[in-house]
Amino acid sequence: MNFDRTPALVFWETTQACELACRHCRASAMPNPGPGQLTTDEGLALIEKLSHFRASPTERLPVLVLTGGDVLMRPDLFQLVSAARLAGLSVALAPSVTPRLTPTVLTELRNLGVSSISISLDGATPATHQGIRGVAGHFELTLAALRLATDLGFKTQVNTAVMRANTRELAGVAAIVKEVGASAWEVFFLVKVGRGRDQQELSPPENEDVCHFLYDASHYGFAVRTVEAPWYRRVMAERARERVGGLASARALGPLYQELSEELRHRLGPAEKASNSASAGTRDGKGIFFISHDGWAFPAGFLPLRLGNVKEEDPVAIYRDHELLKAIRRAEFSGRCGRCELRDLCGGSRSRAWASFGDPLGQDPACGYVPA
Q1: Domain residues for 119?
Q2: Following DSSP, what letter does each residue of 229-252 receive, concatenated?
């Protein structure tokens, strides 16, 4: 895809309403819809506008990811999914695990053409996951939801947010991803927005250790992707060169990597498959586009800089023509990210640069790589 013209993923935060109160929630979700939430008619108009990303039969449309809050809090969800499918959009869902997530609802969504579903699991033990999610019994409910989605034929993705409270359980989470038959594990590296401001981020050396561990985990039959950690692509490239060329590693990985890697082998045995870590080279504003519950367009969900409102403006024009997004796609960064020879492959987290320095084109402080 040409990311100057079309995003790979459009995330629509359909609502802020959610029955959970997760400690790291980007959306600062609440029990009821927030003010200005797009109506059904406005949502249908948005879907129709998104279909205009394809100006010719040779162009691909983005995948529409319906998220929240909890997308299941939208009473018109089935209508929105049907309209998106009729418009030619592939639809993915990111629901919360609540009593609303029933076999009947999932079956209907599958029948309507929803292709994939992502469910969050933030620890390998009930204490850790439930401590983050804030609901007793939620760990077993989450495992049951993952197994059900897989059994119904969804491409099931496990989402995990990395923070100091759960880092040492990542190998255990990887084992669960394999056990429930998920096709992908998407690992979110914390950005201090929403309620995530109160959580502890990892240091750059620890982030490096986790990324090398994730590359190890990608050899066990499920895809591994990261969010707000585009430097994982650098790690992938380094490890692939070592594997193909037999190069001596210049990496100095720390005890966190050793601990996680050893536990991974203990739980899952020696790796037998090729790495499944393919990445399209996206980043906030380049292949990624986010629309909030009240219609504001952002470069990404973790980068709440308003670009325009889809109630009055064309989302296709916002994505293609906004000067900030064009600068992001041209990799016009400052600091280490601007000097880095890998700025197009990686580019750093624009969300973290903004959260840390107030500059969406600044350097990403979570990456410890020193440019050549």
Answers
A1: 9-283
A2: -TTHHHHHHHHHHHHHH-PPP---
Q: What is the pLDDT of residues 187-222, one digit of tens each?
A: 999 997 654 455 588 999 999 999 999 999 999 999
Q: Which helix (H) or strand (E) holds 223?
A: strand 223-227
Name the residue among 200, 286, 169, 280 with its Cα closest to residue 232. Answer: 280
What is the CA 32 to chain-centroid distance, rounded? 24
At residue 250, the pLDDT reads 45
The mean pLDDT value for 129-156 works out to: 94
Instruction: Say how far apart CA 294 and CA 89 lie, in whole Å.
Output: 21
Residue 91 inside a domain? The answer is: yes
DSSP single-letter state for residue 147: H
pTM for the structure as a whole: 0.93
Residue 368, CA distances (Å) to 199, 200, 249 in order: 20, 17, 17
Number of Cβ within 10 Å of residue 10's Cβ equals 24
Q: How, if at all, do strands 155-162 and 283-284 pair?
A: unpaired
Is position 329 within any domain? no
For residue 210, being part of any structural domain is answered with: yes
Report how many domains make up the chain. Answer: 1
Question: 130: domain CATH number?
Answer: 3.20.20.70
Give the number of C-alpha atoms closer than 13 A to the C-alpha of residue 348, restricted to the C-beta side.
34
